[in-house]
Amino acid sequence: MDLSIASILALDGLTNGAVYALLALATVLVFAVTRVIFIPQGEFVAFGALTLALFQTGQVPGTVWFLLALAAAAALSDLVNGWRHRLPARRIGLQVLRTLAWPVLASAVAIWAAPRGLPLVAQALLTMALVTPFGSLIYRLAYESLADASVLVLLIVSVGVHFALVGLGLFFFGAEGFRNPSFWDERFSAGALTLSGQTVIIFFASLALIVLLYLFFERTLTGKALRATAVNRAGARLMGISSSGAGRLAFTMAALIGALSGLLIGPTTTIFYDSGFLIGLKGFVAAVFAGLASYPMALVGALGVGLLESFGSFWASAFKEVIVFSSILPVLLWRSLTDPHSEDQ
Q1: Quick one: CA torsion of 312, 313, 317, 320, rounded to 10 degrees?
Q2: Number of domains in the chain
Q3: Cβ atoms 312, 323 nearer than 8 A
């Protein structure tokens, strides 16, 4: 291996690592606020990429019908809970309206826009509008009633949600893989390196989102409320911060990050209905490097995973996944020896 090959591999690893960083940050965010190890994070990536791909073909994506089905189930849950707690009919109606408003509006726009061949950026924004509500709806239907359960129970639920989303992804998108067009076709040369416009977009979008997340948590009242919930759920609840609201917001942000990651990675590789699992799992490996607690360490871990994958594919392409996932073992061993043990951990 010479310097030029090493530079190309490093660029490829950093590009993938930038996407893994977003998924790692989402994983840390969800776990910190809700104690949920959210295995299906990668499914948001696949849904985002495949939804945009179907818009490109002029079809109404299955995401629309899936979103409407989840919204209807959540609205039914609102009706049942309101009836059980004997709430006024007006209050129940307003809650049902809030649950259905955005999914119905986004789905109606998607059905109208699908055959019209809108510009790629408009289709991307519509894709994010469709996929982002999945986070809150999935939290409400699968996790909210189990918010005080143990981490192990929540992990088992995550496994079930993962298999359900993969199966539904096959039903709504089919088994065919798609590769989306690049958002920017320009190419830049620097010696042996050739930097594509899509790579530049990945770097800048990832950096911009990381900065926005930092400002959100440091400068906004809502962000500070999420941080308080992550530090002490009981204390935050006593201070009037809704743990259910915090959980819904955390999952919504995770879905937004996943959808954006799918849009970024879609032009660089072919995405299938089940591709999100491996992509999300690499983000999870990066989050484990951070102990599922530190956002800066999650970023460092993600870049490390990207570089390890890139160089591993050069030296032993058949074992690159084994190399990446095996790297988690020494980290777990080190944390097991250095961190205090408790039954919940």
Answers
A1: 50
A2: 1
A3: yes
Q: Is the CB of residue 247 less than 8 Å from the CB of residue 32?
A: no
Place of tokens 């043990």: 341
Residue 311 within a domain = no
Where in the sequence is the domain holding 137, given as residue range(s)?
A: 27-276
HEC assignment per residue over the chain: CCHHHHHHHHHHHHHHHHHHHHHHHHHHHHHHHHCCCCCCHHHHHHHHHHHHHHHHCCCCCHHHHHHHHHHHHHHHHHHHHHHHCCCCHHHHHHHHHHHHHHHHHHHHHHHHHHHHCCCHHHHHHHHHHHHCHHHHHHHHHHHHHHCCCCHHHHHHHHHHHHHHHHHHHHHHHCCCCECCCCCCCCEEEECCEEEEHHHHHHHHHHHHHHHHHHHHHHHCHHHHHHHHHHHCHHHHHHCCCCHHHHHHHHHHHHHHHHHHHHHHHCCCCCECCCCHHHHHHHHHHHHHHCCCCCHHHHHHHHHHHHHHHHHHHHHCHHHHHHHHHHCHHHHHHHHHHHCCCCCCC
Q: Are 31 and 269 in contact (CB under 8 A)?
A: no
Q: What is the pLDDT of residues 17-39, one digit of tens each?
A: 999 999 999 999 999 888 899 99
Residue 83 lies inside a defined structural domain of this protein:
yes
Residue 317, domain member (yes or no): no
pLDDT band at 104 (very low <50, low <70, confident <90, very high): very high
State the average pLDDT over residues 56-75.
94
Provide the residue count of the chain.
345
What pLDDT digit, counting tens, does each position of 282-315 carry?
Answer: 998 888 887 777 788 888 888 889 888 888 888 8
Q: What integer is the mean pLDDT of 240-259?
A: 90
Q: Does the residue 323 lie in any domain?
A: no
- The alpha carbon torsion through 153, 156, 160, 162 (nearest 10 deg) reads 120
